[in-house]
Specification:
By secondary structure, this protein is an alpha/beta fold. The protein is built from 15 helices and eight strands. Helix 11 crosses helix 12 and helix 12 crosses helix 15. The termini are far apart.
């Protein structure tokens, strides 16, 4: 059996205007067996209040589905929901929200062995289609847990247009991070004597390319949102095919993990943090960072660390702790002398 016969792909991927108005029809075309099955909607209070009519309509389409609201987005909450799925014999889980909601819904559906339908309300990162969930554990620590890719993904471009543009910019940051992630993956494969999956590698590179070289420059253009949505979904597929997060996560993500774990007082979203990390990572890799910086400028992603309360001392400290967040993960950091002069130069370049 070749390795490509082992992965799961979504049976249904729809990126359309107003698709949330007919979720049942869109999904049942591909999954007729879910008709009449007991369903559960997982969202959060803010979105439930904001889009109550849409949530209610989706619930009615699925036979009066119960709605649960995510509060902590942690492991215990996801397992609690999985318990309910098992006990109440729920066969369909619908995640309606952003990254934290979708991670809880995805993991709960996986543990509860239910069909999982993903309805993202923003495009802030590639977790919407990945075979992993990032959940809170103890304190500010979060853990990446393997689960299953969604059975169906429906992206409503009208809904995404209403999301804050900062969330869409975060999705751009997570997409351009593939530039340094695939390089780190190749380094690791060489160090560990394992082959890189060329198919997964090509898909991850295509995600980066589709956004970095996109002619459409408007964050609210439905055409651009379609391109970004597909890039984020394809990132998830690259991880599924590779059997790990390597195609989409390298040293730039370790920078982000160090920020999240050690400096919770710094308020910066995942996509922005990995974009900052990508500039440092590209420099450590000895590669050209100009295109990446240009893309960030075009879409208004501010790469100046000071904007987020990160001064030179903290910037150096974050990088010094980055590799320790995933000691098992080989990246350029394993062979980089993080000397202060160089880090200050990178910081100054980002602050320009």
């Amino acid at each position: 059996m070749n390795q490509h016969s082992r992965f799961n792909l979504p049976l249904c991927l729809v990126v359309e205007e107003d698709v949330f108005g007919n979720v049942d029809e869109a999904v049942q075309r591909y999954l007729p067996e879910i008709r009449g099955q007991k369903a559960l909607i997982i969202t959060e209070k803010f979105l439930h209040d904001l889009y109550g009519d849409i949530v209610e309509e989706i619930g009615n389409d699925f036979g009066g589905a119960e709605v649960l609201e995510v509060v902590n987005a942690d492991f215990d909450e996801a397992v609690g929901m999985a318990k309910k799925i098992c006990i109440d014999n729920i066969k369909v889980v619908i995640g309606f929200g952003g990254g934290r909601v979708l991670d809880v819904a995805k993991y709960a559906a996986f543990i509860g062995k239910a069909v999982y339908i993903c309805l993202p309300t923003n495009l802030s990162n590639d977790s919407l289609a990945s075979p992993f969930s990032v959940l809170g554990t103890v304190g500010s620590n979060r853990k990446t847990l393997a689960c299953k890719i969604p059975t169906a993904i429906l992206v409503d471009t009208t809904m995404i247009q209403k999301a804050p543009v900062t969330q869409t910019i975060g999705g751009i940051g997570d997409t351009i991070a593939k530039y340094t992630a695939v390089y780190d993956w190749s380094l690791a494969a060489e160090a560990e004597g394992k082959p890189v999956d060329d198919f997964a590698y090509s898909i991850a590179w295509m995600c980066y390319d589709s956004v970095a070289h996109c002619d459409e420059k408007s964050l609210t253009s439905k055409n651009f949102l379609r391109i970004l949505a597909r890039a984020l979904v394809m990132g998830g597929l690259a991880m599924e095919i590779a059997g790990s997060s390597r195609p989409c996560s390298g040293s730039e993500h370790l920078f982000c993990h160090a920020l999240e774990e050690y400096y919770p007082q710094i308020k910066i979203s995942h996509g922005y943090a990995v974009a900052l990390g990508s500039v440092g990572a590209a420099n450590f890799q000895g590669r050209d960072d100009r295109k990446m910086i240009e893309v960030c400028k075009t879409y208004g992603l501010d790469l100046n660390p000071a904007t987020y309360g990160i001064d030179k001392d903290l910037f150096a400290e974050i990088w010094s702790r980055a590799a320790s967040t995933r000691p098992d993960r080989v990246t350029i950091l394993n062979k980089t002398d993080l000397n202060r002069k160089w880090l200050d130069e990178i910081y100054d370049r980002m602050a320009e």
